[in-house]
Design brief:
Blueprint: H1 10-31, H2 33-41, E1 47-51, E2 54-55, E3 59-60, H3 66-78, E4 82-86, H4 93-96, E5 105-110, E6 117-118, E7 123-132, E8 153-156, H5 160-167, E9 175-177, H6 188-197, E10 203-207, H7 208-218, E11 222-226, E12 237-244, H8 249-261, H9 263-273
Parallel strand pairs: 1-4, 1-5, 8-9, 8-10
Antiparallel strand pairs: 2-3, 5-12, 6-12, 7-10, 7-11, 7-12
Amino acid sequence: MSSPRMKTPAWARDRRCLLAVALTALMAFHSGPGKAQTSDLVSRTSFRVCADPANDPMSAEDGSGFENALAELIASKLELPVSYTWYPMATGFIRNTLKAGKCDVVMGYAQGHELVLNTNHYMTSTYVLVVPKDGALAKVERFADPALARARIGVIAGSPPATHMAKAGLIGKARPYHLVVDRRHENPAADMLNDLAAGEIDAAVLWGPIGGPLVKRDHPDLAVIPLLHETAFPKLFYRITMGVRQGEKVWQRKLNSLIRRHQDEIDHLLADAGVPLVRDMGDGMLEVGQ
């Protein structure tokens, strides 16, 4: 006759459960998604950036863009050199660069874009109106201003300000410039500002991080007016982030930490470049300390 099976004491069962949980947690820590993402996909030897080689004044193959300077700043905090994958900013950009694993970050990407995982925003900027400093439009701050009624205004076709201009009855005399181009061969923003300087148009409407730096560098006789008083849809201010691959939360958090700890340096870099910086809710200009 076989002997009855001995029961395991409750304290022993509890100890085994605790041990199993501890081992599971330890294995997850050493081999879980976070470590795989940073070790297998994100480079440890360089800060790999995807960028347009001809997106002046933001990125340029010669390193002269303010996004190039921002990349150098972030890389210096990581104690890594910068390396680039160059690709025109057009359809297929993210698919052929970031998603293809050729780089680990895009420096300037609008918050909330589904193609990438956004870091925390490192700047908020707005569309601007560019006019001659001493001209009749120098005090204009909104599209409803009667001074614009007869103005010939340059605008990127299909951009958010074009909707506001249509509502204000300004499209009839507007001069449209192409939205999607290969910047290696065509530069609508520079063309628009050159046309303004030549008197072919009376005002230009541009995305601030493009118009501001171009005016500061090339057109000292022009004034940049942030469009902060247009409250109707669509909004004209946007928060700008760095974009990383979807799912790379460890890498995202690392960049978030760098942005938070070095925000003052980032603000000064952008302001020095001529980028108009506004408060997060687009309700006023950001004051960058000396």
